[in-house]
User: What shape does this take?
Amino acid sequence: MNLRKTRQAGKRNLTLRLLIGLAATVMFTSAPSVLAETSLYEYVTPSGVVHLTNVPNDPKFQVVQPTGTRMVSGLELERAVARAAKRHHLHPALLFAVMKAESSFNPVVVSKAGAVGLMQLVPETAMRHGVRNLYDTNENVAGGARHLRYLLDRFHGNTRLALAAYNAGERKVDRYRKIPPYKETREYVQKVLSYYRDYRKELWMVPLDQHEDEGNIRRSVFSEAGRE
Assistant: This one.
């Protein structure tokens, strides 16, 4: 790779990181008003089993407070995505695309349905995939990646159906045996695929073994998530 291409790659990587960092910063400052709409509650049994819900029906449930007090940096997010993508055999661009569509990189947002964080995990999905702290960047991203991998396997590598199931639920996809006829879901799938294509063209990831030196940028190689 010549010097010109190396500089261009570094610029693309820096641009992506700045965009992610800016989104996280802006959304983090607006988080209190978002969290005011819907709260998440948890109850830990004596045996250590964690129950999560956005509709508590027992006084034992307590409001879950975000544990992070700082924004998520672009570099931290890249590393979390790189680890999750490698472990679950996903293209990192697909995780970034889902994250962009789901939360716009807001690490503490809670939807009206009770979905939390970067990958917008609902309590049931989080519990299924072993996520204990939905506000932890690594846990949230890993849980979302694990769920996406599960859906891709379930729908035989069909990315469109997996994304539809991520949005509308796997039972709805089973029922129609195609992308459900919901405007929101159809628009969601198209939006994620559009982001996915863009990120695949521009995405340059920081190596997992790189801790301090951000100048040594190289492209990470991951297996494809599935067919579009």
Summary: The mean pLDDT is 75. The beta strands are 41-44, 50-53, 62-63. The radius of gyration is 18 Å. The chain has one domain: 3-202.
